Amino acid sequence: MKMKKVLSVLLSTAMAVSLAAGCGNSDKEEGSSADSSKGAGASDISGEVTFVSGNDQTGALDEMIAAFNEEYPNVTIDHQLLPGNSDDVKKSLMTSLAAGDSEPDVFECDIIWVSQFAAAGWLLDVTDNLEAKADEYLAGPLSTCYFGDKAYAYPNYTDVGLLYYRSDLVDTPPATWDELVEMSKEHIGKDGIDYGYIFQMFQGEPTSCNMLEFIKQNGGTDLVDGKFAMNNSNTIESLEFVNSLIDDGISPEGVLSHKPDDSRAIFEEGKALFMRNWTYAYANANADTSKVKGNVGVTALPVGPSGTESSGTLGGWNFAINANTENEAASVAFAEFMSSYDAQKISTMVRSTFPTAAKVYEDEDVLTDKPYLADVRSAADNAKPRPQVRDYSAISSVFQVYFHKALTKELGYEDAMEQMDTELNAALEKMK
Amino acid sequence: MCKMKTGMKKMSREKRDNIIGYSLIAPSLILLIAIGIVPILITVSYSFQYRVLTDPLNTHFVGFENYITLFKSETFLEVLRNTAVFTVLSMVFQLIVGFAGALLMNGAKRFVGIIRTAVLIPWAIPGIIIAYMFSFMFNDQLGVMNQLFQTANIISSPVAWLTDRTWAMVVVVLADTWKQFPYIALMLLAGLQTIPKELYESAAVDGAGRISKFFRITLPNLKGVILIILLFRTMGAIRIFDIIFGITGGGPANSTATLLYQAYKYLFGDMNFGLGSALSTIITILILACSIIYIKVLKTDD
Amino acid sequence: MTDKKSLPRKILGVIGLVVFLIMVIFPFYWLIITSIKNPADVSLMPTELWPSRFSLEFYENVFVNHHLQTYLLNSVIVALGAMFTTIVVGFPAAYAFVRINFKFKKFMQNFILVANMFPIIAIVTPMFIIFRNLHLINTRLGLIIPSVITTLPMAIWTLIAFIKTLPYDLEEAAQIDGCNRVQSVFRIILPLTAPGIFTTAIIAFITAWNEFMFALVLVTKDARRTVPVAISMFPGQFTVPWGDMAAASVVATVPIVIVVLICQKKIVSGLTSGAVKG
Question: Phi and psi of A85, rounded to 5°?
């Protein structure tokens, strides 16, 4: 990362020139190089940009777009919503991108898609533009914009697995698995608490995210030096721990079918002491429909016996630009603005997302309105990305199946992990 | 009253019938070939290619490689087994519930309209909505089923239906049963109504009870209908998609992923059109085999 | 089976009937109840079998936040389009199969039967690529065309069964009267088959309304989605709005259930004739 920063400083001066000489049609370059001197070229950029986002009922994105239009009055943004979960959105986007459509120009892109989309040649290379501002962003989220040593997206908002706890029942949240178990046992059966710890192991992305977290909390790893070697005591200890949570009644049997919203519903009913969930759960748990409103604490996830540091899976979204866009200048300007401090502040305030621009964490308005951001920033900083390979979804489907086979005891832990390693490495081989 | 005469009279009747017949079925035929046969043939051709949407420049012919990959993979055996289990289970459930429905409709003298509507409701609801209904009802924490069973003292603590391999399959089968049984009930009802009343009357004279009447008269007379239902449902079970998509997504541990669901995952999850097409081709062959048997059955039934 | 039953047996029958009806209706009941609950009560544990308070908030949500009206319009257009195409194309075919002797008739009839079974999964991928080149992706026409494959074969078989029940003498009489074949079909057969056509049309409409796979794959723009697909997209990245989904499902199914209620007798005869007597 540091090397990149140094490089970016050197490059940024030469950037405008090299860009202009390097690529694209002549009328497009002005826009992409205009970023460093905003305002000046802003009114020269015009045209229509189609922007596809997930479903946003808070109106935050429209506010951000309005702010963009104040600076770039000649660019029209056609904002289209694409509801559905991550997989649905991905399917819709992929079908357009694979067809070589010029729309959407800019879209919200899950951090785990970047490599795959970039490798397929669907995303516009924004390396030079992004490197100029690299030091404005948190390192983890920034790294998800890269595939190889080129950047293909702008950071949007970040996400991380966090430990939610009942602040009315627990003073100091647990720092280790043992503490978590101990506190759970103490509280189950009292104060309406049925379960100690809830998390999400639905066969799908939840399993990959949650299980990788457990493994890394316990000193385990996933992809190291281009190879998977997960059949080791750290992993197996983690699988044993998850199953012991279920067997001891600390977690409901149903966690193996739970998605984030199932956990959230249980927690908001006041039935669980601890919950692992993404950042979205915080605002929800403090809404009027929640029975634990005002009694929700949040902190980093606990550490396993063989581990040394907390680990939450890194999630979140970026802004990516379609490589086939017909209005590169306006698209780049738009994506860059949406990723800027100003836009991220709106997003944080209105739709309660976790910013990727470091400065937003220090903004006074934000800190007054969202004091918890200061507490969880370190967790966000230390979040661990999922394996950054060309086709993460192929890796993830192997994870899901074998973690589930181990957790449902269809296969022995070691057998499951050994088979998983074999399949993971085979999948990796295919990507070369 | 009609004055116009056709000029076709001179043509032989046979020839004229051929021309009229084919021009009348032509639109249907062309449509079904264009949107049915042609795409299927293209799918078959894809199945012999390396064709991955995220690797668009690398498409090439690979012979039977996709099929070999499939047959070698454990997933294929697994989804084949799941499909078989699903087919058999759903058939048994649906025949039992379907029979109950048919007998009720046949015997009812009052409320016939209400019963008939009740039976038709599930048929009229989109499968995906049924899937979400069932996954909500069988949710281990929020679900109403756990509560009902607990109130009735059937279970003592909430069951995680969709976590357990067996229960997850049962829930998927139940949802499919709820959707499909109207059709089966109606077919059985139509069959029931063709059984001559005299058969029952003479059996009654012989002193046969209800149950023996059912096995001696009803069942044998419905043999043809049941056979057709079995074939219909086999094909239906192979083609099941929205129910699994909405309830389990193939989990837990892939235990409810059927052939077709796996094909969908290859096609639109992994964007691997080659592998997905190979599996789709296998499904088509299975369906075709069932169809041929079905047609044979219909023929002998005539 | 209707001779004098003893009282206990009658009671047993009624109980059986009631249990059966509850089993059939309960999921639908639960859907409606969930949709009119207060948002704070949907995830109550234990849940309320009969809500303590009602609210129409979910209904407001689905129209204001989820734009259900857009999807409803798409669904209606697609289902009507598929229905009309099916009848216009299917009726002549059904007539020909009953009244005219042409070569390979049996084979053609069987082909249409097999077409009813085509696995959509083997059709949808190439269809996607073909439609993309024809710019039919994200259009309503692009959904109407493939929907026909799910409705047409069934419709032809149902119509065959209906036309078979009409006496041929009528047509012959009309032809002797000086009508040509086309005229006799329009004047005699069409009016007489009207109830059959009506039934077939309803069945085709409902089948097209419920179609999922094509609508899922061939539409990538939200504004062109049909109701079933749109509802399946209500869950966001993490959230699953059960109440909204229930309300939208009720809106999407109640009109259909009413149609079924009115036409149940016809639908029953239509559904069974196609499959069994065919």
Answer: -80, 175
Same domain for B26 and B94?
no
Beta bridge mates, A75: A47
C67-276 maps to which CATH number? 1.10.3720.10
Residues 6+ apart with CB under 8 A from A113: A90, A93, A392
Q: Could you say which residues of chain B have pLDDT below 50?
A: 1, 3-5
Q: Tell me which chain A residue has its CA closest to the CA of residue B165.
A: A408
What is the four-CA torsion angle of A215, A219, A220, A221, rounded to 10 degrees? Answer: 110
pLDDT band at A55 (very low <50, low <70, confident <90, very high): confident
Phi and psi at residue C239, in whole multiples of 5°?
Answer: -80, 145
Q: CB–CB of B160 and A116 under 8 A?
A: no
Q: Which chains contact A through at least 3 pairs of Cβ atoms less than 8 Å apart?
A: B, C
Domain residue ranges of chain C, discontinuous segments joined by +? 7-59, 67-276
Give the three-class secondary structure for B52: strand
Q: C44-55: per-residue pLDDT in tens?
A: 877 888 888 899
Contact A123/A153 with Cβ under 8 angstroms? yes
- CB within 8 Å: C272 and B28: no
Domain with B37, as residue range(s), is: 2-46
User: What confidence tens digit (pLDDT) does each residue in B191-214 have?
Assistant: 888 888 888 888 888 887 878 888
- The whole-model pTM stands at 0.84
Q: Is B106 helix (H, G, I), strand (E, B) or coil?
A: helix
For residue A269, give the nearest of C43, C217, C232 by CB distance: C43
